[in-house]
Design a protein that fits this description.
DNA-binding; Four Helix Bundle (Hemerythrin (Met), subunit A); two-stranded antiparallel sheet; Arc Repressor Mutant, subunit A; mainly alpha; homodimer; about 240 residues; 2 domains
DNA sequence: AGTCATCATGTTGTCTGACAACTGGCTTCT
DNA sequence: AGAAGCCAGTTGTCAGACAACATGATGACT
């Protein structure tokens, strides 16, 4: 029951702790890029855990692209660590997951996505976007939660860019955002009386975005998307720099 | 030497194969979100591998946020799979890593980054950007490879946004891009005679971006950044939709 | 002496078996 | 009926062993 004991055995999974410590060492360049790590045996005795735990931690590091192993040779830090995956919450050190900064990134991509959608949309794309739009209208009329329809609308636009990376990044950011966004809608629901009015405004902005995309007007699509997102930030109570 | 043999044992590591198959099943929603996976034992006998291999594959899936395990209960698919990390090369199925689409994404973020940098840059930020600029000039004058200075210039702008997510995403995209970009510079070196002229043009665009950021003119910064990136795409021989 | 095959050693990859920690449902006792 | 405790099942961890592979040293042959 010594207090120092808890510092080692507190986190549920040993492999998580090993992962975190190794990640920290790599981030601090205590293990320099391209350098070789200690052997699994050495790490195991060093951390006082079994080799299986070390291997699991290394597997996570490999998955994130911080380490690569060569059978018979050893484990090495990647020249450009972290080159395989992008995470909002960097391993261990959480930068607060602030809504404003994430939303700014989302807006940057979404504005451009609207522009590309205007250029490249097919008839099928337009149909999908329209479907999201009408679903939103129906939800609004029924007084239901329109967030799902909102998702579909934006996802359809992302798909219309025909750029898989833009589409997948927006999916990723929305996934990270959905929890807080649900919460925000609830806040609006409870706190703000003119919730319905806000939604009607959002819907009007959606329609203007859609019109620009239908017209194939890239600049207008970007402008409308930007306006929609800026206003959405205001509606969600997120600070916005213009 | 039978051909069927290769289909099973071609990927070096068994855990990679298991990871890929499981990932495929999850992507195809054969294992639905929120659903429970078979036990490690069952997976082991099903894949005809040891439980250690299965555990390593599951560790990768956990690291990417597709699966979460509850000790004593089992392993479950996340409600929103893939919510923890964004990768350009989706697990196994490589979407060709096409330069155009990645560059489009990079441009979207970098244009917005220039805008935020114009709004938020401190004196230290301006000094860092200027340092990258002068380094580029020196490299250009010395006839050296200016790609490193170019990196520093763009990274300094990304840092000036004071938005860690935008900065880190640009770092990530540049890391993915650096290999192909180095190649592209070489192509320019060999194929195009007016390589020096192209670099001078790029440098002029950089200076205009910098001037807009110094002036704190968000719209001008965005405009110059967009123009720079569009022209960079042309210089690199990447198709560009305007 | 120089070159090449061979081997010894060390490292990662995989297998096997076992036990600890924990969960959830079931039984059993009051 | 309600609550306590037990029990099978599952993940987490440990230990030891062997296979696959890489690398440098050793030795044989030209």
């Amino acid at each position: 029951m010594t207090p120092t004991l808890s510092s080692v055995r507190r986190l549920r999974h040993l492999s998580d702790q090993v992962f975190q410590v190794l990640m920290e060492h790599i981030s601090a360049k205590r293990f320099p890029p391209g350098g070789q790590l200690p052997t699994e045996q050495q790490l195991a005795v060093s951390f006082d855990v079994s080799r299986a735990v070390v291997r699991e931690a290394l597997a996570c590091l490999k998955a994130d692209g911080f380490v690569e192993t060569r059978q018979g040779s050893g484990a090495f830090v990647t020249q450009k660590p972290g080159g395989k995956s992008f995470k909002l919450i960097e391993g261990g050190s959480a930068p607060a997951l602030d809504r404003q900064h994430i939303f700014e990134l989302r807006a940057a991509v979404e504005v451009e996505a609207a522009g590309f959608a205007a250029l490249r949309r097919t008839e099928a794309d337009l149909a999908a976007i329209r479907a999201g739009l009408t679903a939103m209208t129906d939800a609004l009329r029924a007084g239901a939660d329109g967030s799902e329809a909102d998702d579909r609308f934006h996802q359809a636009i992302a798909a219309a860019t025909h750029n898989p990376h833009i589409r997948r990044l927006l999916e990723f950011l929305n996934r990270q955002f959905s929890d807080t966004r649900r919460l925000s809608w609830m806040e609006i629901e409870t706190a703000g009386e003119p919730a319905a009015a806000k939604r009607r405004n959002a819907q009007r902005e959606h329609e203007r975005m859609f019109a620009a995309i239908v017209a194939g007007d890239k600049r207008a699509a970007r402008r409308e998307a930007r306006q929609h997102l800026v206003r959405a930030m205001r509606r969600l109570g997120i600070g916005v720099d213009r």
